[in-house]
Amino acid sequence: MIEEAAKAIKEADFLLITAGAGMGVDSGLPDFRGVEGFWRAYPVAKRLGLRFEELANPRWFDEDPSLAWAFYGHRLHLYRDTTPHEGFSKLLDIAKSKKDYFVFTSNVDGQFQKAGYSNRKIYEVHGSIHYLQCTTPCSDDIWSAKDVRIDIDEERFLAKEPLPRCKRCGRIARPNILMFGDWAWVDRRAAQQQEYFESFLNRAYGNLAIIEFGAGTAVPTVRLMGERIAKNFKAPLIRVNPREPEGADISLAMGAKEAILEIAKKIDYV
């Protein structure tokens, strides 16, 4: 199957990379798979009886902003401190050999940008933790979180003051991420990325290959997008997933890093 994947990618002029949380597992990032996986990463959530979907909810920025920012602040620093695994750069080498490439991801960690992928070639459909917005929101402003540092009381898992605040109105700020039950997400940045994505698809029609990494069925945004584009474009869909690889033209029951390195080896020989 690796040979088939390498052949499909080599024959295509355009490459669409789609990625879920499994893409970052080989870099040491948690994928929050299932409630037990989430609770292992955040024991305080287990103590509070909160699942990922319940804690990743904008209501906490109103009800308990110190808890909300402990969770998102911890993730912000984790993603900043993480080095993307070797597969990211190998995949970028492959992508750059094409007429064009694009990344469609539900990840909010900014790992593709950190690995050198162009900002104009990434659609972060759920937003990014590296940008902030007002919780209200009082405007559609989005600003960088690069200077934000969250000091966390690890024992109580509460963020200490001062917490990030809106530059306009002074209310608590929040990450520019689409959360569960979220009616206040400012999607201006994502809308611009979507325009770039649609422009890419218009150019790629007719000779596109799609490779998907670590996108599960629990939140199927990435899987469904890839499947729809594969059907409409008559493009081969390569699905890399160690647990749920089924449902694609080429299924690889592997982790992202291993699959990329194996495909990269084969591409020169097919």
Your description of this structure?
- The structure is a single chain.
- The chain is an alpha/beta fold.
- It has a single domain, classed as TPP-binding domain (Rossmann fold, 3-Layer(aba) Sandwich).
- The protein contains 11 helices and 11 strands.
- It has helices at residues 2-11, 34-41, 43-48, 52-55, 59-63, 65-81, 86-96, 111-114, 188-204, 221-233, 256-267; strands spanning 14-19, 100-105, 122-124, 127-134, 143-144, 152-153, 158-159, 173-177, 208-213, 237-240, 250-252.
- Strand 2, helix 8 and strand 3 (122-124) form a beta-alpha-beta unit.
- The longest helix has 17 residues, at 65-81.
- The chain starts with a helix and ends with a helix.
- The model has no long low-confidence stretch (mean pLDDT 94).
Short description:
Helix content is 40%, strand content 17%.
Q: How do the strands of the widest beta sheet line up side by side?
A: 3-2-1-9-10-11
Q: Count the beta strands.
A: 11
State the end-to-end CA separation: 13 Å
Rg from C-alpha positions?
19 Å
Strand content: 15-25%
Shape: globular
Overall pLDDT metric? 94
CATH architecture: 3-Layer(aba) Sandwich
The CATH topology name reads Rossmann fold
- The number of distinct helices, counting runs of at least 4 residues, comes to 11
